[in-house]
What does this fold into?
Amino acid sequence: MRIGRLAARAGVSTKTIRYYEAIGLLPEPERTANGYRCYSDTDLAQLRFIRRAQAAGLTLEAIRGILNDHHRGIQTCREVQSRAEQQIAAIDRRIAELRAMRKSLRTLAVRAAIVGRDGTCNVAEICSAFQPVLD
It folds into this structure.
């Protein structure tokens, strides 16, 4: 299939495909006699893997490593599992950080509402309301 069809089937742009080729995520495709790129279903599967891995939060460098190992015949399932577990741990840490931030912002909002309920703004009191966010 040509690049436009591959792009449509994979849900990416032709520019993305060319970029992935340039950085070594996709192999250089075969060319037809008139110079058109010619892709296979294997290329489509690899492109879909790249997209799923990116959507899961893996970096292009990590994806490249997995693909390189795969192409050298090295079993990559454990590597994918390890990277997925690392990403899950990072997401869990970020969720905890966001929950703490949300709690601090709720405290800030309540504090600001109490301090400013009479329509005045005491800078010292409002600034003290920021303390939970800054800690």
DSSP finds seven helices and two strands in the chain.
